[in-house]
Design brief:
homotrimer, mainly alpha, 8 helices, globular, membrane (chains A, B, C), Glycine transporter domain-containing protein (chains A, B, C)
Chain lengths: 218, 218, 218
């Protein structure tokens, strides 16, 4: 059951990776690879830091969602782009699930709570960051107008508290993942933003960035 | 013997890293570093995922080819660039060798066949991808007009099948590496291409990408 | 005592990460994250290669300097920018310290001296490289007009020699870190440079690079 939800979460993360590949003019194999990195990368980084062999590589089934995502994007590119809102909703569900399960996995490995929260957040947001770094675009994670990391931090922190007070069960875990999901959707719906890194630069005019063109000329 | 071939493969991968450093206006030390990442990076990522200390760091001899490559590119830049075709041929030989040995090393560590193929491919193509990501250019691996990953996938898959049916010996391994090598050269010779990630975008005009200028102004 | 110096070194590395976040228009959370990557990334990569759980994640105290750095940059952005020279001085101190302690940690894990030197250099310069790669700018490490890697290589080599001849104690270690620090500052003061990767391209006119705009338009 949890594995099924996980696979669905990986699939929707992978769709965002394959859409990036489409937007940047990459090929089909790059699309599957980028989808895999987006869907599985956060968990792999977490497991490497926990000094474990990444769980992803233990079962071939985890590689199925990225392949499916690449095929879907290939077959229905315009439709998938129109379903942007739907992808965002499922991506938010994946974020909620992964930051909760990532924190749990870290806590099960006896790390300190601060590290567990950080590893939970990395599990949730790491794949998307790797997607952007590999695609040679600036990570959307740092976009002050897109509140993505904050719900993950809150969800991971709530998980660590529930674990500490020994009240983490399926119901509480589902509640935390749901809360993260709702917070993420609310941030999109109401246009929340995070303060800039530079407190005094708010009024500086934006300079166009030529680095992230929509399409790559090979 | 195998180590010698490996060192030659690392050297030619490293040449492509040092040529990238030359093209981007990096310094000598960056050239050696980028050569090392290109030649050794794929194997290091494979070993990290296998939760082993990277084999590369066990013998200082592995660091010799990148240093030699950086010196060659420094001393004979125009000549090395004219030998572009020769570099491609040796790079193809390295690709054939590394995707075969990478898959074998993964299988020796008792991973499932799908993961072994993936790790074999990563051993072959990972170094070049890291080279491009670190140099801040879009990975050439995703270029639909340059068929690079496909021969590696076929070579790694053939290795896994040969292993499964217990027929993998030196002759078969050499044959698989040779087949990968020939496929890669054929793809260059005949201009093969891989379908785009976006199936319906074929006719969209290319927009020039300003992100990957030939030379960096520090 | 050593931990205190280490925390100060991490803090000043992190300041350079948070300043990059400010320059690129990232948000506060991205600033803390990028500061953490800059301050801690080199050591994490070293520990992953040594096949150990990264020491950074064992104590929450290591995450304090990046948070403080992000707050400082947020509160006093123009002042921190004016203190550019001061940041460089402390960054040089961090470089001297980390390349020495990184080499020591590698040698304590029984790696060969060449690998130990390389891991020491990675400890010193890896965080800054990760900062640039994640921020989608060309790594400043490769800038021929900014001699950054060379003092680290010399410091790490001196540490390995002192270890080999069994004369590495607190005084010698401090001396080596101090020497690295002085070399780095001298390279800034006297405008030293490293030869280009391409030996014959010295006179080619620089082509402006559009890839690294000062500010990202999300």
């Amino acid at each position: 059951m949890l594995t099924l939800i996980e696979l669905v979460g990986i699939f929707f993360f992978a769709v965002s990776g394959s859409l990036m590949a489409a937007r940047r003019g990459f090929d089909m194999l790059g699309s599957a690879f980028l989808g895999g990195v987006t869907g599985l990368g956060g968990g792999v980084v977490r497991d490497l830091i926990l000094n474990q062999s990444p769980a992803t590589f233990a079962h071939p089934v985890y590689f199925l969602p990225p392949v499916l995502a690449a095929l879907c994007v290939y077959a229905f590119t315009p439709a998938v782009q129109k379903l942007h809102r739907l992808v965002q909703i499922f991506d938010a569900a994946g974020l909620g699930l992964f930051c909760m399960t990532g924190t749990m996995k870290a806590l099960e490995n006896d790390v300190n709570p601060v590290t567990a929260v950080l590893l939970g957040v990395i599990t949730g947001v790491g794949g998307g960051m790797l997607r952007d770094v590999i695609s040679n675009v600036t990570p959307d994670l740092f976009n002050p107008r897109d509140v993505y990391a904050l719900p993950a931090i809150l969800g991971a922190t709530a998980t660590a508290f529930a674990w500490h007070f020994d009240v983490l069960n399926i119901a509480v875990g589902t509640g935390i993942a749901g809360l993260t999901f709702v917070l993420r959707l609310a941030s999109i719906r109401f246009g929340w933003s995070v303060p800039l890194a530079a407190g005094h630069w708010h009024r500086q005019p934006n300079i166009p960035n030529h680095g992230d063109g929509p399409r790559r000329n090979f």
